[in-house]
Amino acid sequence: MSSENNNNNNNNTNNENNDKINFIKNTIKKLTSENNLLNDVVEIKSANINLNTEKFNDYPLLNKKEMLLRAYYKDCVGDAFTGDIKNYKGTFEEILKLDNLPILVATLNVLMKYLGLINKTEHCIDKEPEICAKDFAEYLKNEFEKDNITNINNIKIGIIGYQPAIISEMVKTFGGNNVLVSDLNYDNIGRIKYGATIYHGDMNEYIIKNSNIILCTGSTLANNTIWNILDLIKKYNKRIIFYGTTIAGVAELLNLERFCSCGK
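Above: the chain sequence. Below: its structure as tokens.
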């Protein structure tokens, strides 16, 4: 491939990334302008979450592979999972000048929470991830029963993003051979965790193609991998359910299905 083609591909990628960032910026600008909030101050900083580790001690938050960036405004908070923590304090108008995607995502979430447009933008604590995972498995089981699918042993569940409690519950419910998981953390890739093999994120297309339903972490929004995943979902005509708090605002804006039973 020529250097000219490489440059064109890079430019196309950059333009696409800018479009995604501008989509979030434009929403923040619209909502703050309509509600006269542009000059209000938002504080954004890392948050420490108390998670119970009796059963699961390898949540991404605990091994520092991902961290929680939290936006504070009035009495509301908005979260964004990221590996790139940058604290910031400024007005909505000043934030709109930034190109830091996790900061923009957290800001969008806290703004939409304050305006009553979304809920569950604050990460759960203690044993609540385990409760959420059980609720999630039960929810899916009930959904399949509504569709008259009684033999759930033939259901393939694809999971994009490592969440140990969810993986464990899906394996218990649907069987280890029916759960396909991808992650970007090399400490997990190639290992069997809680009964499921963990594949590299490069295998997302294979997982999407060969699963009946996809469960995807909302942190794919903050690391900007969500758009390729959505393209693959459309290509293979699959159902996707995002989980967690990061995706709260964009899920509402794009009418994406989201599950978050214990967020606040």
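The longest strand covers residues 41-47.
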